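Dear Dr. K.,

Following up on our conversation at the group meeting, I've run the structure prediction for TIGR01459 family HAD-type hydrolase from Psychromonas arctica. I'm pasting the input sequence below exactly as I used it, so you can double-check it against your construct before we proceed with anything downstream. Let me know if the numbering doesn't match what you have in your notebook.
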Amino acid sequence: MINGLKDIIDTFDTFILDQWGVLHNGGNAFPEAIAALTFLKSHNKKVVILSNSGKTGSFSYGRLEDSGITRDLYLDVLTSGDHMRQNFASGKFQHLGKQALHFTWDNDHSVIDDCGLTESIRDEASFILCCGVDRGDVDAYMDDLAFAYQHNLELVVSNPDLVAMTPEGTLKTCPGAIANAYQKMGGTVHWHGKPQKEIYAMCKELVGGWDNAIAVGDSLEHDIAGANGANISSLFITSGIHTKAISNEKSIVNLCDEFSVKPSFYIDWFKA
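The predicted structure tokens came back this morning:
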């Protein structure tokens, strides 16, 4: 356990930060997080935000600004949505066709235009594009998933997170939960973002490389597993999505064993 970034500041040149659960939970930024970002800036560290968000990194600029995190406190943002858009642009998903059955948040269909797709009804879709959970929970999607599985449709997910913290401290269902249910049915799922190795390679290129990087996050399944897979150090934030399962150091060890991951360090909040 460390007390703050001051304990490890001289070890790393690059800090790869999760967004939700580390910097904010969809509302105002945590005061400790703003102080931590300011601390990193004062030590001339490279700071990049790596987020499992289906939105683009450029969209995140506004969200971060609204939360109280100014643009000068980080180099850039890279999202799982960027990762997915790159794969569509590169032709990786050409075999899926263009007719997408789209699961979204808040009636936002901008990704359809971004990826050159056509939104379709279920009977005419050639694949599923999973970017949101506006129906409330996974059960509301099971009929569509059963139909897709019967017709051998593949699923592309822009945000692999199963849950995310809300400003009220509760957990909300994320697109990864739908994708996970489809994969358990036997359906083919194309994952993006953390913990996929490709997004860490994209991140390294984005910041111009690093000598010694550390990833900071609250998800053992995504942030810490991703860092382990990318062979970089990691800092586990215990106040995030796993907080109810944590009571002492032994509970952290048991939880990490459950997810088959090993963080380099852990701390209660992201702080200097």
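Two things stood out to me. The chain has two domains: 5-81+194-267, 93-190. The CA atoms of residues 98 and 116 lie 7 Å apart.

Best regards,
J.T.
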